[in-house]
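We close this part of the discussion by returning to an individual protein. The sequence in question and its structure tokens are set out directly beneath this paragraph:
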Amino acid sequence: MPEEAAGHLPLDHAPLRRILTQPRVVGLLLVCFLTQAGHGPYYTFYSIHMKAYDYSLGLIGGLWALGVIAEVGVFLLMHRLVPKFGLRNLLLISLLFAVVRWLLIGLFPEHLGVMLLAQCLHAATFGVYHAAAIQLIHTYFKGKHQGWQFIQWLCLRLLWGAAHVCDRGRTESVGLPDCLVFDSR
């Protein structure tokens, strides 16, 4: 069966170095790094932060669950959002919502309604980001570079690790609320 008929990607492709140095690819990797850096203190300290404001463990678990439900919900809507807004715009929108979310969590943790809204924003700050980033990676890396998806995944994990190490030093020196506000600037 011909490659095209099987729905496979074309075998012609640019050298990997040329792909990795394209401004759009560099920009995507930078956005991935910044998004992971923003989520680092959240994943690490959110429960501790909420407990410090006398939220019960059950309520904290419920807030986490709300974020996951919002994320799954947006995954179900991505097929409608992508044609309407485009992948690049969705990625930028996810960054904007991340700024709002980190500000809300850092500045208004004592307001349950605000925390419910902040957790719903997980749909944008991670769900939209993740779906758009993965699709852009699939778009930018063609042919035999599709086999590089494991390497790409590994690079994203390394970016997350580097972002987490950077965040760890910040959160230890300034505390979570200040770190979340710092991340949103």
